[in-house]
Amino acid sequence: MRCFHLTVAYDGTAFFGWQWQPDRRTVQGAIEEAIYRVTGERLRIVGSGRTDTGVHAHGQAASFRSATDLEAHVLLRALNANLPADVRIVASREAAADFCALRQSTGKRYRYLIHNAEIPDVFLQNRAWFVYDPLDVEAMNAAAQGLHGRHDFKSYETSGSPRVDTCRTLRDLTVRRSVDEDARSLVSIEVEADGFLYNMVRNLVGTLVEVGRGKRPIEWPAEILPARDRRLAGPTAPAHGLYMLRAFFPPTP
Amino acid sequence: MRCFHLTVAYDGTAFFGWQWQPDRRTVQGAIEEAIYRVTGERLRIVGSGRTDTGVHAHGQAASFRSATDLEAHVLLRALNANLPADVRIVASREAAADFCALRQSTGKRYRYLIHNAEIPDVFLQNRAWFVYDPLDVEAMNAAAQGLHGRHDFKSYETSGSPRVDTCRTLRDLTVRRSVDEDARSLVSIEVEADGFLYNMVRNLVGTLVEVGRGKRPIEWPAEILPARDRRLAGPTAPAHGLYMLRAFFPPTP
Fold this sequence. Notes:
The structure is a homodimer. The first copy, chain A, is α+β, with helices and mostly antiparallel strands. The first copy, chain A, is about 20% helix and about 30% strand. Chain A folds into 2 domains: about 1-95, Alpha-Beta Plaits (2-Layer Sandwich); about 105-245, Alpha-Beta Plaits (2-Layer Sandwich). Chain A has helices at about 25-40, 70-80, 135-145, 200-210, 220-225, and strands spanning about 1-10, 45, 55-65, 85-95, 105-115, 130, 150, 165-180, 185-195, 240-250. In chain A, strands 1, 2, 3, 4, 5, 6, 7, 8, 9 and 10 form a 10-stranded mixed β-sheet that branches. In chain A, strand 2 and strand 3 (about 55-65) form a beta hairpin.
């Protein structure tokens, strides 16, 4: 058996998230179906993390073992020819026999997109969180700096899928405003950590937006860490603004 | 009766074009329905140009006469509250009583977007024409320069809705490559003229792409003008890469 490492992009709008579910259109299910059509194998793939309904990805990682003779780049083209247009394999490589996209991931990076304007943009409908109130992006970014480093993030974990160890290391959390080619005012929040708790990115974003709206001071997002109480943080930002950018793995020898 | 001038943005993916049709979801029909809900009036609006199924707009212009007492900015908010999320009124103003978005337009500007890459981008699915062959954008832009000015564009008119006078003045036709934030390689073609023949932008784009692929010389798009024969030009580029950017009107006194 050989092991493959896929990098996957998807528009999450029409999917019930990443994880396979019976009778539901999921990204994992779509890829497994494409693998079946290409190799004849009914198998399970492993993602570096589950994404919820509506969440997008530029670079989700997945791994699986297969008896196929196809080279990785041929497999990429064959899978794309058998996938719906809202999922694309953007990279494919053969990995070490014991490679696992879930267990061996050393971190992940996400982007959260906010459209901050008076009128929603039709082209960002399912692609960004529309926020009407003008956001103080400098205050949000200053608040974000206070969360860098290793902390117990239990205050930012939605219950339902609790982790025993809720300490994580935030390697980056940056908020910036950008105006794109079509003069849309976007606020982009990028976050990288060695791992994430359930809904952690969306809870961080919802909390930073409270600061951006001027409802809370810059110190607040860091101040609520010690209490380890989800009720102290801001609301959960909607799923459709979230993009998984990439998963990190140890360098291959 | 008062006259209103609306500026309209829409994602054309789920519409059967601009123009009202019985039992079809059209942009005109959606706006007329919203006007009915807001003012109680069953009326017809006039667009500065019809767009086909799948074509998008950042700034389509429309006009209509109404007995409403609402101020233009209140009307904007009321219409948006009654429109589906893939259509937005982005500007609204009261115009002179005889204003007509179709007859008084002095020109229009469009953008055509090509995604030029090895793998289609899931987020550009219905938003850009995917072209796999590497395009020579400098050659395309050089070819475009040869079309500037006043010419008979009958070679670029799809039959079906023929104009008597097929002369138009191209004020701008520029091809450039841009790499966006997500490192996507986009080719953007912007074109402005005093008016357009049926499918003229898409026929110009399809022709310039033949030059970009190296199949035709830079001089070719201008050389085929005198023949006034559609069969000599390149194929019609698909609708979903086309965006109406704006319509121009004489300055109001």
